[in-house]
Structures are given as structure tokens and as C-alpha cells.
# Entry
Amino acid sequence: MMKRCVLFYAAGILLVIAGCSSSKETVETQTVQPSGSPENEQHQSVAMQLFIDGSLKESKGQFAEAILDYQDALRYDHDPAIFFAMAKCYAQLRRFAPAAENAVRAVEHDPSKIEYRDLLAQIYLNSAQFDKAALEYRTILQIDPQNVAAAYTLAQLLEHVKPLEALELYNSLIARQGPTWEVLLQIAQLNTVLQRYDKSIEALEEMQKMDPSNLAVKQNLAEVYIRVKKYDKALVLLNDVLEKNPANIMLRATLADVYLQQNDWNSAKKELNTVLQSDSLDPDTHLRIGVAFYAQTLKDTLIIPEAIAVFKQYENKFPSDARPYVYLGVLHRGIKKDSVAEQYFTRATQSSNWNGDAWWQLGWMYFDKQDFKETISIMNKAKQYISDDFRIYMLLGIAYNRSGMNQDSRIALERAVELNPADLNALSSLGLTYDALTMHTESDTVYERALRIDPKFPLVLNNYAYSLSERGLQLERAEKMSRESLAADSLNPSYLDTYGWILFQKGKYSEALPNIQKAVDLGDASAVVMEHLGDVYAKLNRTDEAIKYWKKALEKDQNNAALKEKIAKGIM
# Structure
């Protein structure tokens, strides 16, 4: 009788759960008398009246007062419905610890009652005990496999910890009740996170069929199309959304990105320029547009002035933001305005001394002009602010090497390799420096290490081949490596000289001549290359040409005593 009355009164009670508590507030009942005894019937009657009183107070929102009645009722009868009612009231009062304790008691008395387990699961959810909540929902599904609400909530709980199982649950809901908007949305989002873009597309396309005019779905679908490089489909959707919402500058910027992916610069530029005219353009989007223009300059230098204009607009609009300085510096270098470029690079290092790109570009500008002294000064200054950017130490080491300061070069390059053990330029430069210090064991070790990383890297092949040839070692292998470097860059004067010099070391003077001559004819040959060409002519008994190139070599290296002796004697 008690249970029938409880169900009647509980039917109209709305459960709202929030908050938390940790106090233990269950009430132990008195000893229940044998069934059918007059005293037991009297107790049930009292419990029923107290329960009715509590239910009425609960319906009025008087949850604390209702709990007192329920606690009194439990002194006469421990029907699970009373524990259930108390759990609901505690939950309404945001006191989740006693709410959970009473819900657990209700479940213990009637384990198959889904209503009790659902309440317990909700209490666990609201008190952030997600594992316990998931366990209750799993149990509910064992009792009632068709319980849609339990399956949906369990799937949401599992999304971050067991995403594949969550997807199985969502798909089972689709199979059971057909596609619904909420479930399809969860499937689409979860598959996108898992990078299962084909499945995400299927869900979003189904959502689009259900609501063809929904712009948010179209936009999300377009973004997933972009991820799988279905640019034509993405363009259709993006243009459709923009037609109805032309002021959406973020979407217009996305459309421009799609055009860029299709190498349609003119269409992309049209969209980007539209975005640039917006009064609501935020700094990040503006910078993103500038970077798009900058990237295009790498394909077409004619648009450098346009790219500069975009960044200048940014500079004027956001004068305290240093992010465009490096780009402006590089772009001005591209139009041979090094003095302006230097100003921007310097401003970047001053405002953002942590910016390795700024220091690198400033140092490289001077290195490119062969002003190694200034390069060394700049990179040493950069070291004061940046201790873990290998580029700083690599450029410093190379500048030291070019200045003949090989011990300093070794220290800097060893640090560069320590920071980035796989960088082939750093390894090659360190090998070259070890060579200059006649540390040939260390040099060979570095070159071999570099070739294990990339057996076809031309700079390493060339430098190692030259090192071996200078020592007269492994000339066959050196010649093979040199040919491979030339195959990668046939007009590199250094590579041509190396190949010619190896042939010279093998006594193939006629074959060596055209290679070293070509290295000189390409322009800006070093003293060493000039001397090599003179040596080849000397071996071919063409003394006049030999002296001519030895003298040119001496002009570049005036302290070379061996050259002076060759010129004086007219022979090697």
C-alpha cells in the first residue's frame, strides 16, 4: 500500500539538481515489526502520513522541511521510496553527499528500479563523479537496453575518455530511433576531433538534409570539406553562407584560404581586400591576411609592394604590436631597401628580444653582405636573450669560421648541434670548422653522422668530398659524393671546384680544367678556387694562364706565402 501511494505523490515532483555537500544525513530506522502485527500497521500508517506531509512540502519547494518529515517517516518504515524522496530534496538543496547516500539506499532496496538509479546517476553527474555516473547509466542500459536517455547521457560522458565507445552508442541511437539533430551533431563533432572526417561529413550532410537552410551546419560542413581538400564543395557552401551573411569577415577570410589552396590568387585577394576594409577587423585576422600576402610574394615578387601596404596598414592601426616588423623587414629586403629592413629588424629585436626570427634576419642581412664582424656582434647580443635557438649559434659559428676564428666557430657550432642534433647545415658547418682546425677524426665523424640523416644532402656531400680529397683519402668515394652534389646543384661554383679538384688529385688534369674554369667563370670565386685553376693550368704546362690565376688568387689572399712562391718560380 505504501508504495502505491508514494508513486502517486512522486509523479508530479520536478527534479532539479545542482551544488554539493559532504555531510552524512541518512536516518537509521527503528526495528521493523513483523508483517501484519498491529504495531507494524500502526507504524506504516504513521510513516504514510509523514511521507504525505513531506511530499506536499516538497511540491511547494520547501525541501528542508520535507526532509524533516521524510526523516521522521524513516523511523517507522524504511521503504526505498522515502530514501528516494529524501535524495531528491537534498539534491534540490545542492547537498549532493547526503543526496547520494540516500539514493544509494534506495537502489540497495530496489536495484532494478530505473528511476532510483537515474536519480543517483544525476547526483553523481552534478557532483563531478563522472565514473560513478557512467557506471549507473551502464547498469540502467543492462536493465533496459532501449533506454534512450541513458544511452545518450552515457555517450556524452564517454566522449573524452572512450570516444569510440561513445560513437557506438550514438550510432546505436540512430539505428534505434532514426537520425535526430542532437545525435548527429554529437557524431559530427566527435568524428572531427578523431580526424575521421569522412564520418563527420556523413553526419553533417544528413543534418543539412534535415535543415537545408541552417547556415551553421553549412559552415561546419564547409570547414570539414576543407580539411579533406574538397575545395569545390567547400566553395559552394561558403559562398551560399556569405550571400546570406556578407558581413561575416571570418568566413570571408576562410573563403580566401580556400582560393589560396586552389592557387587562385586573384579571387583570394578580392576577398582579402574586402576583409581589410572592415571596421571590425581584429588584429589576428589582419595579421593572417598579411601573412597570406607575404606567402604569395614567395611566388611572385611583383606583389611585394601590396604585401608591404597590408602590413603598414596593420602597423598604423596597431602601433604597439611588433608582430609585423619581421615581415616588413624581409619584404623591404626583397625590394633592395636594406636600410629600411634593418630598421624593422632592429625594432623587432628591441621590442621582442625573445624573437629568434628577428635576430636571425638581422644577423643574416649582415652575413649576406659578408660583414662578418657585425654578424658576430649581433649574434652575441642575441645570445644574451635567447639561449635555446640553435640558429643563433649556427650563424655565429659560420661567421666566426668566415672570419678565420675557428676555435670560436667550433664552440658556437657545437652548441648549435647540441640544440638541434639533426640540422644538416649546422653539422656541415661544424665539419668544415673541424677541418680548418685539422681535427679530421672529429670532422669525419660529423660528416658521417650527417650522411646517416640524409645520404643525399648536397652540402655535406661536397664538404666531405673536399675534405677527403685534400687529404688524398678515399678519392673514389669522394668523386662519387661530389658527382651527387653536382647532380643536385650543377651551377654551384663550390661544388664544381670540389669535383675538379678531386679529378686533379687523381691526375686527370684535362677533365679537372673545365669544371674549375666554370666555377671561376660563374663569378665571385674565392682565392682557393683561383689558386686551384692556376694549379691545373700549371700541370697542363700552360704557365701563363697558371700565373694569371695565381696572381688573382693573391689579390684575394695577400698573405699567402705559397702563392707568392709559385708566382716567383712559375711552377707549383
Q: What stands out?
A: Residues 38-59 form the longest helix (22 residues). The CA atoms of residues 216 and 241 lie 9 Å apart.
